[in-house]
């Protein structure tokens, strides 16, 4: 008989847990994990390859443990210095010592939990939210405390304050815009959470670039708030999911705390070179964001016209309800070469916005599903 996980002397608190589990299926229209479905432009890819080639000439040495140049580039990106758009006002400008990066924002969040969570400590979150938040809590031995959202998946300032008063967590995880619901997160809610706790408040802004242009990011709240942490990723808007680069902005003291738990040289020289090169081309890498937002809004409008329940979304995906049998609808879409996400929310499915063509393929497939399964 094959050995099962249950036969192993695994940690008691990991027994019975499930791994992160988006199905990895290769179908024509993949709209299940909120990627940017637009490939990296060819000329940008060539420049990235040239940078990686250069980095390979010294790959016999360990990489810069402090990824100094990457942190400089990330600060410049967040300050708006790499694009023609708006720049952060001078009092909100970030310095490289406020930036930290790792292999995806998942690793950044794990390091944060290693430093500020762990056995005997707790993290408060508001499901439905990004499933890795509770999985990372489990992996680091941090107790996960789920709290209730308000209607339409929103979190009012009073709601976050009441949950913090009740549970006294060491860390508060907020996600804005929230995955899987797309719900905007109000800066008033972040301010209220910060004032209600002595712990860390972490805002996961993986989808920040898809917010309306005039909506303030949690980054604007950083001055004077040394326990506030804002995580971002190059996986979504930046079309860089396969390269694994996530980062956070916080007080330099928070960055010092992460140095205590990171593995030495955790960001490879090749990753650093690729990310720096990609950031040099920020406008080209982000050129598709407007198009993705348009396709997202089109999905919302057309799904609503088909009779499904939609929600306000500030991200690159749409949660929709009113699906009689999500499992059957998921399978029916798969048969038409379209994959979406069934997150186990009763009567709901989530779909990422694709290119215009992919979005059309999804909507056409959905109309056929709706005809047999209203
Ligand atoms: N945060 C949220 C809210 C996400 O949806 C995701 C990816 N699905 C991540 C973080 C992790 O992204 P990555 O590790 O690729 O940076």
From TrEMBL:
Its cofactor is pyridoxal 5'-phosphate. GO terms for molecular function: histidinol-phosphate transaminase activity. Signal peptide: none annotated. Keywords: Amino-acid biosynthesis, Aminotransferase, Histidine biosynthesis, Pyridoxal phosphate, Transferase. The keyword Transmembrane does not apply. Pathway: Amino-acid biosynthesis; L-histidine biosynthesis; L-histidine from 5-phospho-alpha-D-ribose 1-diphosphate: step 7/9. It comes from the Bacteria. SUPFAM superfamilies: PLP-dependent transferases. The modification N6-(pyridoxal phosphate)lysine is found at residue 236. The keyword Amino-acid biosynthesis applies. Residues 29-365 form the Aminotransferase class I/classII large domain. InterPro entries: Aminotrans_II_pyridoxalP_BS, Aminotransferase_I/II_large, HisP_aminotrans, PyrdxlP-dep_Trfase, PyrdxlP-dep_Trfase_major, PyrdxlP-dep_Trfase_small. Residues 1-23 are annotated as: Disordered. CDD domains: AAT_like (cd00609). It catalyses: L-histidinol phosphate + 2-oxoglutarate = 3-(imidazol-4-yl)-2-oxopropyl phosphate + L-glutamate. Homodimer. Belongs to the class-II pyridoxal-phosphate-dependent aminotransferase family. Histidinol-phosphate aminotransferase subfamily. This is Histidinol-phosphate aminotransferase. The lineage of its organism: Bacteria, Bacillati, Actinomycetota, Actinomycetes, Micrococcales. The gene is hisC.
């Amino acid at each position: 008989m094959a050995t099962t996980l249950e036969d192993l002397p695994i940690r008691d608190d990991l027994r019975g847990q499930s791994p992160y589990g988006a199905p990895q299926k290769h179908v024509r229209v993949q709209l299940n994990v909120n990627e940017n479905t637009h490939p990296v432009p060819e000329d940008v890819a060539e420049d990235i390859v040239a940078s990686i080639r250069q980095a390979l000439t010294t790959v016999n040495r360990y990489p810069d443990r402090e990824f100094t140049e990457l942190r400089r580039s990330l600060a410049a990106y967040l300050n708006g210095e790499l694009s023609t758009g708006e720049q952060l006002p001078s009092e909100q400008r970030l310095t490289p010592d406020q930036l930290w990066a790792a292999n995806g924002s998942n690793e950044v969040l794990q390091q944060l939990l290693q430093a500020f969570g762990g056995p005997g400590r707790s993290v408060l979150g508001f499901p439905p939210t990004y499933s890795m938040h509770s999985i990372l809590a489990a992996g680091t031995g941090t107790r996960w405390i789920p709290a209730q959202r308000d209607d339409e998946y929103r979190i009012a300032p009073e709601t976050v304050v009441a949950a913090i008063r009740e549970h006294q967590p060491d860390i508060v995880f907020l996600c804005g815009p929230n995955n899987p619901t797309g719900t905007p997160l109000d800066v008033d809610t972040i301010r209220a959470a910060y004032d209600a706790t002595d712990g860390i408040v972490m805002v996961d802004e993986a989808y920040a670039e898809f917010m309306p242009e005039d909506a303030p990011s949690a980054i604007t709240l950083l001055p004077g708030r040394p326990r506030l942490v804002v995580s971002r990723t190059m996986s979504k808007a930046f079309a860089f999911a396969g390269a694994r680069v996530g980062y956070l902005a916080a007080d330099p003291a928070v960055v010092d705390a992460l140095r205590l738990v990171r593995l030495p040289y955790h960001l490879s020289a090749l990753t650093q070179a690729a990310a720096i090169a990609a950031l040099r081309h920020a406008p080209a890498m982000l050129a598709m964001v407007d198009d993705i937002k348009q396709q997202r809004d089109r999905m919302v409008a057309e799904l609503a016209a088909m009779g499904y329940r939609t929600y306000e979304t500030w991200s690159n995906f749409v949660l929709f309800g009113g699906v009689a049998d999500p499992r059957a609808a998921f399978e029916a879409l798969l048969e038409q070469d379209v994959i979406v996400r069934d997150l186990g929310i009763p009567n709901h499915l989530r779909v990422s916005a694709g290119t215009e063509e992919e979005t059309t393929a999804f909507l056409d497939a959905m109309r056929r599903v709706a005809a047999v399964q209203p």
